[in-house]
Amino acid sequence: MIQTNVKQLSDHEHQVLVTLPQSEYDRVYGEQAAKVSSQAKLPGFRPGKTPKHVIQKQFGVKIHEDTVSELLQAHYAGAIESSGLIPAVQPELTLPSVQPDGEFNFTLNVVTWPVVELAPLQDMNIETSKVTVEDDDINAVVERLMTSQVKYDIEDQRVAENTDQVTIDFVGFVDDEAFEGGDGEDHALVLGSGQFIPGFEEQLIGHQAGDHVVVNVSFPDPYQAAHLAGKEARFETDVKSVAKAITPNDEDALASMLNFDDAAALRDDAMQRLSKEAEEATYLSAHDAVLESLLAANSIELPARLVDEEMKSTIQRVTQNMKQQGVDMKDEMLTDDAFRSEVRERSEHNLKASILIQTVRKEANVELDEAKVDEELENLSKQYPAEQHDAFVNWMKSQESEMSGLRDRLLEKECIAYVLSTSHIQENNKALSVWQQEQDGKEA
């Protein structure tokens, strides 16, 4: 019934002329006319009894438009399949202003994915890093914990000092009127933390539980609450308790604070956690090295429409991420030449990398073992309490998009492993701390 004629316009662009017999148009037109006739309410005619020529005169344009819409919905996907093309972006549809006699047709402009003939993988030399956990990495974790772990012991007669934690009730006044958001009860405040506006915490030093303190401060200008910016304020404050900061004086004390049996158990836990980080870092190093080597060895010409669509998606993701961080992307930011140039570069890099990974997958006939999917789900579930593992796995399996993304990541991992197994690899050992510093430098 459906006929397609494919004309290649360029390496990645094709024009598909789709032709349907007039009988198909007439059949759908008749169905649409019957539907309109059964619903039409015209003076002098009972519903469903209006003559065809009257229906045609009153609703002919609408019936034609509905017929065209129905034909496109019914045959659009079949036309693409019949053409044998795999679109990289949504095909552009064109309808002739005047349909030829005896048939109905429409045209699709189809942009296809670039076809890449991979450079021989065995000729590639790839330098990667095997990230390892050193004693210094574990020592650094313990040192951070020694300085960051603190508990507070309340002392009845203690006079508040800097770094102490005071529990307070307070009410703020501007021009002798309490203002919204200026009060709190049982608020735990570490003196010297800078949690409150400048000058507030310092005025609590030297006081103890039971004291009533009048704290006088000035709001900064500018200030997040514009109506308070630069204004004098008074806080009527009651000190309810004062607690001394207790920090561990050795590793065993630190381990006890963190509910480990001893320092050895603490260090063993740190080793396990860091080993997982090192394993992930090793893969990321290999992943990036493989992609960069593939990109260097294979030239890819990207269709302009494909790049444009990827840029739109990238800008949308950036905009959403910025909004989540409380930053509103202005129109001038989105049209800035430097910003768009960076987005274009990122989009082209991502597209080429994706095309190359898919090409490797086809060449190596990489398939995904469902056992690895289950294993990855189990690993992901471990970020939740044990009693929630099964619920998480079941939820993931019910989320089509989440599972699709997970399978894509695992397939990519298999493709990276294939390239590594085929190419010449130079693997260098690198301490986890060194690798992390390098990543921080890239992000800066």
Please give the structural blueprint.
Blueprint: E1 3-8, E2 13-21, H1 22-39, H2 52-83, E3 92-94, E4 103-111, E5 125-132, H3 135-148, E6 151-154, E7 165-174, E8 177-190, E9 212-218, E10 232-246, H4 251-257, H5 263-297, H6 304-324, H7 331-334, H8 337-364, H9 370-381, H10 389-398, H11 400-422, E11 424-431, H12 432-443
Helix pairs in contact: 1-2, 3-5, 4-5, 5-8, 5-11, 6-8, 8-11, 9-10
CATH class of the largest domain: Mainly Alpha
Strand content of the residues, in percent?
Answer: 15-25%
Helix count, DSSP H or I runs of 4 or more residues: 12
Estimated radius of gyration: 34 Å
Secondary-structure-derived class: alpha+beta
Mean pLDDT: 90
